[in-house]
């Protein structure tokens, strides 16, 4: 990759969400904002190799995207016989009241997570607009085809436009109806950064994990008493604390049982544990924990163990039992089976995993888990076939390297 291509790639990862959010505030049109941002990046691809990378790529892209958006507005106005310039063309337009937190990206998340949209659609649209994920990457996260996901996103943008859903921070009364979708989006943005699947990206995207944590902190400032917001922040912090220990020098994923725990970030762990203790106290007072709070508690158990052998697997399984009641999804059942393998052995866990095949056959982690259990049972031929399937489905380079090594070590 050339220096210019690298600069464009870094600008896309770092600036896409900010530019789209800024244009959405100015033009109040998601389609226009996305198209203008895409045109700006296309212009950069055409011009930067000749003109050189500008000193401030983000400012250059924002200015170019704004001009592209204004040009589109003018062409649209002329085509429908309108001659009045849109107010957003002028920089001296009166500032809009934007609520308690002045953050364009957070406002865009709340716009995309309007209750008029189905939950899966809210999440997919925001991953596209804020996370900058491709339709293919989002489709993989939802285990659906790329064409299906593209149609969902297109319909969501059309509905926002037709319903005139405003681009603003919701009122305090509206927050509870929006926050579940917002948290789901932030969780998936974090996950894409934690285990990146996009072509041409590194195995970990620290820009996405950092942005997800930053935005979750802002949501917590808006809703300091919400247990699920605190739970998600704790989960992110405890997961992020392990990031630098997860990838080897040769780019291979290091599983939890092989990580150097001395490389974990103690400050992030301490903050995450404090939030988990707060939520445990609330649960003791009768407040039932939600999905993110239970996941954070599982993360706290793992990060409390000085060595993998010190892990309290019975507590982990008990927490997963609690989580299954809140979220009976096959992925949660798969993760529970991994913990069961440590407590009751791989044969018991494999019986559970095999029952999940119908719902998870297209999910690489299902085949990777199954391969590991088969390996532990000495069924090398079956394990090899499962590893092959997992490698075919995995989109993360570090994970693929780890799976390939494990497969090649089979006798």
What does this structure look like?
By secondary structure, this protein is mostly helical. Among the domains are: about 5-90, Rna Polymerase Sigma Factor, Chain: A (Orthogonal Bundle); about 225-330; about 335-410, Serine Threonine Protein Phosphatase 5, Tetratricopeptide repeat (Alpha Horseshoe), CATH 1.25.40.10. The chain has 19 helices and no strands. It is globular, with a radius of gyration of 23 Å. Mean pLDDT is about 85; it is low at about 80-100. Keywords: Sigma factor, Transcription, Transcription regulation. This is RNA polymerase sigma-70 factor, ECF subfamily.
Keywords:
single chain; 411 residues; mainly alpha; Rna Polymerase Sigma Factor, Chain: A; Serine Threonine Protein Phosphatase 5, Tetratricopeptide repeat; globular
